Amino acid sequence: MTRISQFKVDDDVLEKVFSLFFEVISKDKDEEEFQNIIHDLLSPAERIMIAKRVAIFYMLMKKLDYYNIAKSLKVSPSTIAKFNLVKENSRGIVNALKSTVRNEKIINFFEELILELRRPGKYGINWKDAWQEKIAHERKKEKGI
After folding, report:
1. Torsion of CA 11, 16, 17, 18, to 10 degrees
2. SS3 track for the chain
3. What is the pLDDT averaged over residues 2-29?
4. pLDDT tens sequence across 49-73
5. Contact 130/120 with Cβ under 8 angstroms?
């Protein structure tokens, strides 16, 4: 857990600091520039922690079970339960991830349609490749990432 000074910052100063932080992070940036800014601001442990938190929210929104989330991200079930409670009262992360989950559902629909057209047992299809594609799709659907 990160340590913060015991001396409280005034609310107006804190508001200005958050405004500055928003200005630095939210500008239209490409992924490389964003990565560079995050690399400069956060330690490796903080970057991993934040990425895992976003992934937990994402996987919870996809309604994956705790076991698969814990196994994939190497976090405890209690951590997942904590973020599930936070998700219920979320003011921002859920709305930000809704479009991503919605787009992924559309992509999964088309992937399943293609897999059905190229299913194992269909004439002219390489069965080995078709089974590997089907197994890979099922694994992706189960693990979430």
Report:
1. 90
2. CCCCCCCCCCHHHHHHHHHHHHHHHHCCCCHHHHHHHHHHHCCHHHHHHHHHHHHHHHHHHCCCCHHHHHHHHCCCHHHHHHHHHHHHCCCCHHHHHHHHHHHHHHHHHHHHHHHHHCCCCCCCCCHHHHHHHHHHHHHHHHHCC
3. 74
4. 888 888 888 888 888 888 888 888 8
5. yes
